[in-house]
Amino acid sequence: MADGLILAIDAMGGDDAPDVTVAGAELFVAARPNARVRLHGDETKLASLLSKATERIEIVHTDLAITSDMKPSQALRRGKGSSMWNAIEDVKAGRAHASVSAGNTGALMAISMLVLRKMDGVHRPAMTAAWPTLRGRSVVLDVGANLEADAAQLVTFAIMGEAYARAILGIEKPTIGILNIGSEEMKGHDEIREAHELLRNSDLDLDYHGFIEGDDISTGTVDVIVTDGFTGNVALKAGEGVARMLGTRVREALTSNILSKVGAVLAIGGLKQLREQMNPSNVNGGVLLGLGGVSVKSHGGTDAKGFARACELAADLANSHFREEVAHNLNKIRQKGIAAE
Amino acid sequence: MADGLILAIDAMGGDDAPDVTVAGAELFVAARPNARVRLHGDETKLASLLSKATERIEIVHTDLAITSDMKPSQALRRGKGSSMWNAIEDVKAGRAHASVSAGNTGALMAISMLVLRKMDGVHRPAMTAAWPTLRGRSVVLDVGANLEADAAQLVTFAIMGEAYARAILGIEKPTIGILNIGSEEMKGHDEIREAHELLRNSDLDLDYHGFIEGDDISTGTVDVIVTDGFTGNVALKAGEGVARMLGTRVREALTSNILSKVGAVLAIGGLKQLREQMNPSNVNGGVLLGLGGVSVKSHGGTDAKGFARACELAADLANSHFREEVAHNLNKIRQKGIAAE
Fold this sequence. Notes:
Number of strands of chain A: 11
Structural class of chain A: alpha/beta
Number of helices of chain A: 13
Largest sheet of chain A: 11 strands, mixed
Largest interface: A-B, 65 and 65 residues
Distance between the termini of chain A: 32 Å
Shape of chain A: globular
CATH topology of the domain at 1-122 and 288-321 in chain A: Isopropylmalate Dehydrogenase
CATH class of the domain at 1-122 and 288-321 in chain A: Alpha Beta
Oligomer: homodimer
Helix content of chain A: 40-55%
Strand order of the largest sheet of chain A: 3-2-1-4-11-10-5-6-9-7-8
């Protein structure tokens, strides 16, 4: 891995694989002149899809692929040697700096955890999501790697989310909030209140804002939103559902009569910009934070541009000081018995 | 209460009270020729705000009002004789069929529970919210009356939500879903899985659909979404935040240049319709279900039209068979030891 970054890609995972993953990999290497890619999957198919041969994209053949209906336990038993497994194994073995897959989420989390193992001090890894806000973008975690989180886990989520936001959003000192109902300190579960106290009174060098509520996420009140995986997943999907519904409604409104159709044509510049702002491809990619290597999950239904975006996210994270920063902060709370041993 | 419905209104609660509450009460009685209102609050102020004297609006004087910063415990200790308390007391004493307040939510829940008490068989009351969907509207509960809910409580939420959706949405046989992450049966907390089994195997005459995910809410996959108060509150507010952010973005897009401004003027018919569809006033009003009487919570920042909408909701619910239907179903599960004794 002497010069430049190497990315391991599961080319067979996702709704429109391998077409989208190959096209996405080509977009990625075009945008990053020093990057190289190891493309895992069916050699014949992948070679036929490459628009031109380049030594910066190396195909690594395997017949095996993880299907979307496979349960995590099945993926662990039967997934060895699959394109997903091999991509993650590349990271473990040092053949790549990071891996990307648009495949089965449960399988990806299970295989990533087994192969890459947890970072020292982390109880449980957490899945991130990027959330578009009025101020730009925020990071929400956990959005589904775990069902629950105790106070110490929430504190480690805060530490990881903060370093992650710095790495991928380029914010020098990201602010952190814990998702709660009501901003009064008496509200919320015990776990949340305890995490709040730990973060408020810690000597960690974190910009902890306090509790936030659901509507603060889109406002961009904080850069990092800390919550348990159940709540985070529901909030993320509820928000996605509202955005989709409103998109449908706006389209209906702008085609409801001949005048509004003409109006929509005139307004097309502004509307295009809006569509670009809200394009899920631009915020594609979640990361299972807290592992011994970078494993990025792309949305399964993404397009080539979105997949390339997930590759860039993986590259940015691999190129950052994320691990050192997290290790530094985990070490501080370990001395207080909060981090995992 | 011989002829027509009587509504008790806390005229002093809400951001713009009593202006909005008085105007809303007048809109309500104008729309419901047989309804009467008991308006609780400062007699001089209220009388001066009434556009014309009518015997259908009776002012019931009190000096005391619950403030927005009062904690529930303070409201219970010091709130007796306040406009909010007196409105709820009207329902208890049979002087009104239902009460409405736009005031302090925590205080309203606490006073409602103390004064109206729980219905037989209900462990904990649940707060509802109306959620606009692609198909119309759905009911989400609990959105914050409780932090947690065990399986038996979730089953009673399903029973109450179903009867409520019939009463206020006019759906003959509302469908019910439990909010979860992933639709596979193995996922989710124990409480959720247990409630799922109870509803699936019950002899209740309910149209139980199964698990749904966050994005299904806006799709309108089911009419009633059952969840615990923490998750429901976060989902509701996260969705509100996304809707507000997108509203801002659409406005920006339609005013970003001169062409798009002209376009927006031409499209104004369709956009007006959209704004009307999405107007929060049209879905205003949450109800604390499971009490011995109807207590409706209006959004604190609503306008007169929205407050009138909350009054109509209260009237519809008071006029329905909600209580009998819930009692009937609770009785069935009580025989199996699921309902509260």
